[in-house]
Write a structure and sequence with these properties.
Elements lengths: L5 E5 L3 H13 L3 E5 L2 H10 L4 E5 L1 E2 L2 E2 H10 L6 E5 L4 H9 L2 E6 L4 H12 L20 H14 L2
Parallel strand pairs: 1-2, 1-3, 3-6, 6-7
Antiparallel strand pairs: 4-5
Helix pairs in contact: 1-6, 2-3
């Protein structure tokens, strides 16, 4: 399915990258993975995104660096911050740099689909997640299996 919506995912963990890609596909949204700050900045300089998703901790640097570049370029797309370890200071920093939403990792799958869908203007499909699905990855083995299968398929 072709999509007119494109999301930048600045995330350095391969398992999380794969899972987010699968969930974005479930929304009918294209994801562009940037595994580090430098790649994310190059992407921001070359592609118009509908949403920028940024992990707070990126391979020795801060996702805030991506947001600073996003802000300096005066891009109008919304930003979403993700982290496993928020402090009041890091939350304030990410919000101050333009994040419209902050989410905790691991996050409930249903919530992820709803939040991202709303931010890019698409509706999460019925049954896109289970209310009792818990959080990924350990709590939802089925989703992890789907992500692994999708990765294998897309790389062959």
């Amino acid at each position: 399915m072709e999509s007119s919506k494109v999301v930048l995912v600045a995330e350095d963990d391969p398992a999380t990258q794969n899972l987010i890609e699968v969930m974005l596909r479930g929304l009918g949204v294209d994801g562009v993975i940037a595994p580090d700050v430098e790649s994310a900045i190059v992407c921001l300089d070359t592609v118009l995104f509908d949403l920028v998703m940024v992990d707070r901790h990126l391979a020795g640097r801060s996702g805030a660096d991506v947001l600073r570049h996003h802000r300096a370029k005066e891009l109008v797309c919304p930003a979403l911050g993700m982290s496993e370890q928020w402090t009041d200071a890091t939350r304030a920093e990410m919000l101050g740099l333009g994040c419209a939403t902050l989410i905790d990792k691991p996050f409930p799958l249903e919530s992820f689909m709803q939040v991202v869908g709303k931010m890019v203007g698409v509706r999460a499909p019925e049954g896109s997640g289970r209310e009792d699905s818990g959080k990924w990855p350990a709590a939802d083995t089925q989703m992890a299996t789907v992500a692994a299968a999708a990765t294998t398929t897309s790389r062959t």
